[in-house]
Amino acid sequence: MLHIVNKSPFKYRNLDTCVRVSEKEDPIILIEDGVYAALKGSSIEGLMKKTLEDHPVFAIRADLKARGIDEVMEGVEVCDYSCFVDMVEKHVPYSWL
Amino acid sequence: MEEQAPRKIMFVNRKAPHGSIYAYEGLEVILIFGAYDQEISAAFLDDAVLSLKKGQDTSEIGTKEFSATFRVLEAYGVENRYVERESLEQRGLTEEDLVMDVDVVDGATLRKYMGEQDVLLPF
Q1: Radius of gyration over alpha carbons of chain B, in Å?
Q2: Which pLDDT score is estimated for B2?
């Protein structure tokens, strides 16, 4: 399954819950306000480190750029829309709305 | 005619800039109020501190980039601009990451300022 997270991790617990209930190795893609999870030095870095141990994590370039984030946490892969489409083709997507 | 004393009005911003229209609408309303002779404050806490982050470029998501507009708040008479310290630190940001001059205050101080207002408008 491909987990799509579009909410700020500082306001919603979607990312926590996603990590808690997802299969190991399931990819997680951060889009829209979800990309704030990739901020370096934030208070959710601990959760993200735990997430990165079990999951590949991607963040959409356009959403990072829109929010002025030019450096992401180590381990997070920056991905454009075409890589998003590739992942949706390979996995069943689930959006944590 | 008797002149009415200016009222203390605070805009309390709590939303991230591009995930919804609230942050932009909040800014527009602050600017409109700035044109009137009132004592306006703008407070930024929770995800609203992200609206003030430098280097935003929305050209690829097709929405308006409005962070630079915050710099005109001072010229519009919005003298009091507060950012809550904890919200900033939670997001790994410092005052230097922000597009405008603000007072970084702790939660207790902000609560005190909020208590001094005649009107509080949430965005």
Answers
A1: 14
A2: 64
Half-sphere exposure of A89 (CA within 13 A, CB side): 6
pTM, 2 dp? 0.84
Reported as a single tens digit per residue, the pLDDT across B23-42 is 999 999 999 999 888 999 99
In which element (H, E) is residue B84 found? strand B80-84
Residue B1 reports pLDDT greater than 70: no
Shortest alpha-carbon distance between residue A32 and chain B (Å): 6
Looking at chain B, list the stretches that DSSP marks H as alpha helix, in order from N- to C-terminal side: 22-34, 85-90, 107-115
Among A32, A43, A45, A46, smallest CA distance to A72 is for A45
Contact assessment for residue B6 and residue B14, using Cβ atoms and an 8 Å cutoff:
no
Chain B residues near residue A15 by CB distance under 8 angstroms: none
| Owner of token pair 């601009």 | B81
* Pairwise CA distance, residues B61 & B59, whole Å: 6
DSSP string, A5-58: E-S-TTT--HHHHHHHHSPTT--EEE-GGGGGGGBTT-TTHHHHHHHHHHS-EE
Which of A7, A8, A68 has its CB closest to that of B54?
A: A68
> Tokens standing for A56?
């590949």
Residue A34 has pLDDT above 70, yes or no: yes
